[in-house]
Each structure stands twice: as C-alpha cells, then as structure tokens.
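Hi R.,

Here's the chain you asked about this morning:
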Amino acid sequence: MLNEHPALQSLRPYWASYQAMLKSVDEGQRFKASPKETYAHALLIKIKELEHDVQTMRLAVAFVRDISPSVANAAAIYRYHEEYFLCRLTACMDKAHRLVGAALLLKQDKCEGKGGQLFVLRAIQASHPELAASLERAAAIEAKHKKDRKALGDGLPVLSHDFLTQEAESLDALSDKTTAAIEAVLSTLAPIFELACA
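And the predicted structure, written out as tokens:
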C-alpha cells in the first residue's frame, strides 16, 4: 500500500496528531491544526486518492480475468473494463502530479485539471530535476499504453480464454509498473517531506 511507503515516515506523526484532533472535534472540542499537521493531512488525502486508483486498476484487471468468452456481449464487457483501467491509469498520473504540487506547495488550482501535469513539470524542472524525471518516467508508462491501445483500433476483439488471460496479465504488469513508478515518485519526495516536517 502506498500509504505505508517508507518515504512517508516523517509525515506519520503529524497524521496521527491530526487524526487525534479530529477525534476531539467529535467530542465537541475545538482545535487548530499546526501548519505541519495541515501539510501532512493534505498529502495523506492525495496519497489515499492515488491508492484508491491503484486498487481500482487491480479490480478492473480481476474483472477482465473473470470474463467468460462465451457470455453474451463479452467483447463489450472486456472493452468496458479495459477502458475503465485506462481511466484509472490516467487518474493515477494526474494525481501523482497533484501530490508533487501539494508537497512543494504549488498553487493547487494550477495543478488541477487540464494542463496541471505540464504546470507541475515546468514548476519543478529547474529546482527538482530528479523529481521531474521521476514524474516523466511515470507518465511515459501511460503514454506507451495509450499508444499501444490506439494502434489496436476501436474494433472489439474476438475473445478467447487465451486472449483474456493474456490481456489480464498485460494489464496486471502495467499495474505493477504504475505502482512502482508512483513509489519512485514517493521516494524522490522523501527529502522534501523530511524538510517540511523538520
């Protein structure tokens, strides 16, 4: 799980204190989070969003694996889950860039939506080239899959058990690559997290 990544070690005490303060609000007390607690909490939200997308990618792979070629509309069911997988893959890349933007305290409205990835990359290129390179490697995974997918065209494939098994294995490997790329981004962010929490 991404939220257990070692790079997040410096954030954990602030997450715990923030959660404890939220519990006190439930008991009717007031609290004011410190800047470090607010920072850590904002990053935790981004990491949980990323984790959700990684998990749903794996769920889509499981659905592809479970499709029976003999079921009516099997090809359409396959395409649905494959496209859902692609949507989650794209979301992972967007959210990885947003996480970097939040970690570096970039303007969040600029990190969101269309052009957000490019904004983050441009903002960090000179000051954090290793982080920019890590994000670019992650984005290249998505770009390659989209290119490969486009080369196949829009026609629904003729499904067989072998085809579905091969596709599930391919998407599973892509999930693994995506997770590894996100973990690499987290590792590159570790010194930034440590500095922010010092």
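Residues 161-196 form the longest helix (36 residues).

Let me know if you need anything else.
M.
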